[in-house]
Amino acid sequence: MNQAGKVLVSEESRTTRFRLSTVRWWIVGVLFFGGVVNYLDRVALSIVAPQVREEFHLTNSDYALILNLFMAAYAFSYGFGGKLADWLGTRASYYLAVTWWSIAACLHSLSQGLASLGAFRLLLGLGEAAYFPTGIRAISEWFQPRDRSKAIGLLLMGISVGALLGPPVVAFLTLRYGWRSMFLITGALGFLLLIPWTVLYRRPEAHPWVGEPEREYLRGMEAAVTSSSERIQVRDFLRYRAVWTVIVARTLLDSTNYFFLFWIPDYLFRERGFSMAMIGALLWIPYLFSDFGMIVGGWSSSALIRRGHGVGFARKSCMIAGASLLPLGILINVATTPGWIITLISVALFGFAILAVNIQTVSTDLSPSHSVGTLYGIAGLAGSVGAVFWQFIIGKLADSQQYTTIFGLVSLLPVATALIMLTAPIKLLQRRAENRTA
Q1: N or C end of the chain, less CB within 10 A?
Q2: Cα–Cα distance, 324 to 209 (Å, whole number)
Q3: For residue 356, how many other CB atoms are within 10 A of its CB?
Q4: Which one, of 292, 317, 293, lies nearest residue 304 by Cα?
C-alpha cells in the first residue's frame, strides 16, 4: 500500500475509534431529543389553554379534571411502564412508548369538548410516562454509577428544552395555523425519533460499534449485574426503607413540576395580564434556567463522586442545595413586574432541576440495570399519584383565587422532599435472601 493509502487508513481508523468509543453518549443524545418532543407535546395544551378553555367553556375545575385524567393515566403507565420496560427490553419499549404518545398527541386536534379532550389527554398520559423508565433503564445499562447523574441530567434536560421551546413554538404555530393544526404538527414529530433509535440502540454486549475503550468501561458494571442476576420484583423492592423514602419524596416532589408546567401559562394570562405574544416571548427563559439546573445538578453530583465522596453524600448535597432556592417561589404572586415574575420563576426552576435530577438518579443507585425500570416506575407512580391529589387541590384553590397559598405549597413541598431524602441509605440494594441486614 502506498503512503497516501496508509494515511487515509490511519485517518479512518482514528475517526472510527472516536465514533465507537462514544456510543453511550450518542444514545443519550437520542434520549435527550425524545425528552424534548415528549414535553413539547405535553406542554402544548397549557400554552393554548386560554383559547381552548374559552372555546369549550371550561372552568378551572374542568381544566384540573383534564389534567388529572392525564396524571391518572400517567401514574398507571409509570408503574406499569417500568415493569414493561424490564420485560420487553429497552429497545422495544422505546418504540411502543413513542408511537403511542405521538398518535395520542395528534388526536388532540380532533377535540370537541371536555369529554373528548379529557380522553385524548388520558391516552397521552399512558404513552408519555412509559418513556422515562425506558430512558433511565438505557442509561443504567450503559453508564457506571459515577456518570449516571450526568447522563440522566441530559435526558431530563430534554424535558426542560421541550418546555422551553413550548411557549415560542406552540404560540407561533397556533397564531399562524390555529391550535388544532399545532397539535398535528407537534404530535407528528415523535415519529421522527424512531429513525435514530433504530440505527443506534443495542444492548452494550450486542452492539457492533462498541470499541475497546468503551468495552473496558462497561466491564466495570458487569460484576454488579452478575452478583444480582435475578430480576427484582415489585414486592421485593417494597421491603426496603430506602425505596419507601424515595416513594414518599416523589409523592411530594412531582406536584411542583406539574404546576409550573400546566398552570403557569394560564396563570400569567388570566391573573398577571400576559398576552399570548408575551408568553411566547418570555416563558422560555425559566426553562432555560431549568436546563442549566439539570447540567449543574448532574455534573456536580458526578464531580463529588469522582473526588472520593460517597454516592449518598453527593446526591444529598446537591438535593439540599437545589431545594434551598425553592422558597423564593413564594414571592412570584407578589412580584409587580413581568421581569421579576420571570426572574423568580427562573430561580425556582433552576433549584428544582438540581433537586430533581439527583432524586431521579437514585433509582439507578439502588437497583441493578435489569430491574431499574421497575424501581423507577414505582417512584414515578408515587409521584404521579401525588400530583393527581395536589392538582385537585390547586384547581380548587385557583377557583377561589388563593394563589399565595398555591405558590407556598409548590415552593415548600420540594424542601420537604430534600429533607426526607436525607434519611435514605443510597447504595445498591442487597436481596434479603443474600443479606438479612439489608
Answers
A1: N
A2: 43
A3: 30
A4: 317
Q: Sign of torsion, CA 328 333 337 342? A: positive
The kind and range of the H/E element at 333 are none
Q: Residue 221's pLDDT is what?
A: 63
Q: Which three cell numbers stand for residue 355?
A: 433537586
Q: Would you state the cell numbers that stand for residue 177, as one nine-digit string?
A: 395555523
Range 206-220 average pLDDT = 79
R_g of the chain, CA atoms, integer Å: 22
Q: Give residue-wise pLDDT tens across range 110-158.
A: 999 999 999 999 999 988 888 888 888 888 888 887 788 788 878 878 8
What per-residue confidence (pLDDT) applies to 229? 53
Domains of the chain, CATH where assigned: 24-421 (1.20.1250.20)
Hey, how many other C-beta atoms are within 10 angstroms of the C-beta on 313?
Answer: 14
Strand, coil or helix: 160: helix
What residues contact 320, with CB distance under 8 A and at least 6 apart? 418, 422
- Cell numbers that stand for 305 in this block: 463522586
- Alpha-carbon distance 382 to 258, whole Å? 14
pLDDT at 220: 64
Among the ranges given (62-76, 243-257, 346-360, 405-419), the one the predictor scored with the smallest mean pLDDT: 62-76
Q: How far is CA 77 from the centre of its chain?
A: 14
Mark residue 211 as left, alpha or beta (left: phi above 0; alpha: psi -120 to 50; beta: remaining): beta
CB-CB contact of 150 with 139 (8 Å)? no
d(CA 75, CA 79): 6
What dihedral angle (degrees, nearest 10) is formed by the CA atoms of 116, 73, 164, 418? 150
Distance from chain centroid for Cα 323: 18
Q: How far apart are CA 380 and CA 37, in angstroms?
A: 19
pTM: 0.70
User: Confidence band (pLDDT; 50, 70, 90) for 434?
Assistant: very low
Label residue 275 left, alpha or beta by phi (over 0 means left) and psi (-120 to 50 means alpha).
beta
Q: Are 29 and 150 spatial neighbours (Cβ–Cβ below 8 Å)?
A: no
Distance CA 18, CA 315 (A): 31
Could you tell me if 254 and 386 are in contact, meaning their C-beta atoms sit under 8 angstroms apart?
yes
Tell me the CA distances in angstroms from 28 to 154, 207, 377, 393, one per residue in order.
7, 15, 19, 36
At position 327, the amino acid (one-letter code) is P
User: Which residue is listed with cell 421491603?
Assistant: 239
Q: Tell me how many degrees the CA angle 89-94-100 measures, rounded to the nearest 5.
A: 130
